[in-house]
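Subgroup meeting minutes
Present: P.N., E.W., G.H.
Scribe: E.W.

1. P.N. recapped why we're keeping a running log of single-chain structure predictions: easier to compare across weeks, and new members can see raw inputs and outputs side by side.
2. G.H. added today's entry (164 aa).
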Amino acid sequence: MLIAIWAQDENGLIGKNNHLPWHLPNDLQFFKEKTSNHTLVMGRKTFEGMGGRPLPNRQTIVLTRDKDYQAKNVLVMHTVEDVLAYDQANEGETFIAGGSAIYTEFLPYCEKIYRTFIADSFEGDAYFPALAWDEWQLIAREAGKKDEKNPYPYYFETYTRIDA
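Output recorded in log:
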């Protein structure tokens, strides 16, 4: 099953110079809890923005058009079809983890969304692609704990695709 997971500000911003524009440890913990022991799919820029190494306890797929690209301890794939075939062949969940172009490619195939909505605005250069929200149903929304380490108001949201 394909699941999109991301955090965004109130303007749809998701990145700045291939990094998150905010520091929200509780969101990072949420991401870890949801994705551990599953597969992560991301583009090359997102992967390199995370330090160019896979996260622990996750199979990482880097999707790139560069046929010569190599990275240690990850699967490198070159087409959406390759990733879809991998997902079909494996039990478990495959998480789409960015960036913008990767979300655009895979959202039509996703069955679930985990979105952290940060009720604040930031500066950056990458935005979540336009999404037909009428195709999705909000099934859970939980306010995150705001404290000195997590200074912004934020919400963990779960959506499922509405059957056509």
